[in-house]
Structures are given as C-alpha cells and as structure tokens.
Design a protein that fits this description.
The protein is mainly alpha-helical. It has helices spanning 4-14, 21-33, 35-56. The protein has one domain (4-56). The protein is 70% helix and 0% strand. It comes from Methylomonas methanica.
C-alpha cells in the first residue's frame, strides 16, 4: 500500500491532470482505509469547487474604472 504522502500527492496531481487507472485505484483503496487521506481528498475537492465558483463571479477585467 502507498504511503499517505504518496496518496496526497496523487490527489493533488489529480486536480490538474488525468491520473492513470492504477493511480486512481491506489487512491480509492487507500482512502477507504485512511480517514485522514479521505478528509484531504474531500477538502481539496471542496476548495477547488469554491475557488472556481468565486472566480466565475469576478469581473472580466479587474482594472476596469467605474
């Protein structure tokens, strides 16, 4: 089984690129048994969604004069 350090790195990488089947399976098996890594995965996904939602509401150009 991979270490928590390896799994959190994979979770982070998976936010930016498509992981291989083996990597996704390694994460899935690990987070079933490790609540800390499961929490990290859930929190990372929440932060990503919140940040994307925030940026959607920003003006197209921040330097616009009113």
């Amino acid at each position: 089984m991979r270490s928590c350090r390896d799994i959190t790195a994979l979770v982070s990488q998976g936010m930016d690129k498509q992981l291989s089947l083996g990597e996704r399976l390694a994460i899935g098996v690990h987070v079933m048994m490790c609540s800390r890594c499961r929490n990290f995965q859930n929190q990372s996904q929440f932060i990503r969604k919140a940040a994307l939602g925030y940026t959607e509401h920003l003006p197209k150009r921040l330097d616009k004069k009113a």
